[in-house]
């Protein structure tokens, strides 16, 4: 029989590292839609499964202590949500967190290629096929220790932040689900952490794109590339060049669209990247 206990936990081990340049970074907690929740696991037992709102999440070790990391969906309701920890012998414990409101600004963009805003019927068939492909990549899971000590994927200026309500040619579309880094076309794009290529190729909206698995549902995505230098199945090291900045897909100019999944959830990449001077969340 599964034993259940409920506690309200102070998950707040807060900022593990505030660094600059390409120094390694560990996640910052942000209990907001699109943010990251961190759970300290003081009595973690090997083989335990941790879930957040019924989706399995990554567990990692730092300085001898164990933690779980969960992405909070951008569309998540505010209020109480829960981690559950189930040990190999069936004991279950629940830890509540409270997600607070965060308001995101609007962004209005003009797209010259009108098919990238209002696709034709053939485009829609392709988009639907690609949606299934993206779903498979997003749900990928591997059991290795997660690599979450990220570096920046390229050099450049942030041109669009996560969570913006987006309007293309004054038509509202899905919120921005990543971080745009404006940079010169052809500039190298590097793997933010060691991992394995889940998928790569050319997509209707995203252009040339790469998915990297970093373990236990932590996945990074690199879009609008001018070229792809890796293929599915490749093992890459942190800092390895995997492609180049481009302007393929639905774009207004050359940039890297960088995104991060945790427990199949897109989160603000800034919470996993080293803090840049003068940059705030």
Features:
281 residues, mainly beta, Immunoglobulin-like, Glucose Permease (Domain IIA), eight-stranded antiparallel β-sheet, five-stranded mixed β-sheet, 1 helix, 22 strands, 6% helix, 38% strand, globular
CATH homologous superfamily classification of the largest domain: Glucose Permease (Domain IIA)
Give a short account of the largest sheet: 8 strands, antiparallel
Radius of gyration: 19 Å
SSE class: mainly beta
Number of helical segments with 4 or more residues:
1
What is the distance, rounded to the nearest whole angstrom, between the alpha carbons of the first and last residues? Answer: 44 Å
CATH architecture term of the largest domain = Distorted Sandwich
Summarize the amount of helix as a percent range: under 10%
Question: Could you describe the 3D structure shown?
Answer:
By secondary structure, this protein is mainly beta. It folds into two domains: 4-99, Immunoglobulin-like, CATH 2.60.40; 106-271, Glucose Permease (Domain IIA), CATH 2.70.70. Helices cover 6% and strands 38% of the residues. The chain is built from one helix and 22 strands. The model is unreliable at 1-23 (pLDDT under 50).
Could you give the topology of this structure?
Elements: E1 4-8, E2 36-40, E3 49-52, E4 55-56, E5 58-62, E6 65-71, E7 79-86, E8 92-99, E9 106-109, H1 121-138, E10 157-160, E11 165-168, E12 171-172, E13 179-182, E14 188-190, E15 195-203, E16 207-213, E17 219-225, E18 227-228, E19 235-236, E20 241-244, E21 255-262, E22 265-267
Parallel strand pairs: 1-8, 9-11
Antiparallel strand pairs: 2-6, 3-4, 3-7, 5-6, 7-8, 10-13, 11-12, 13-21, 14-20, 15-16, 15-19, 16-17, 17-21, 18-20, 21-22
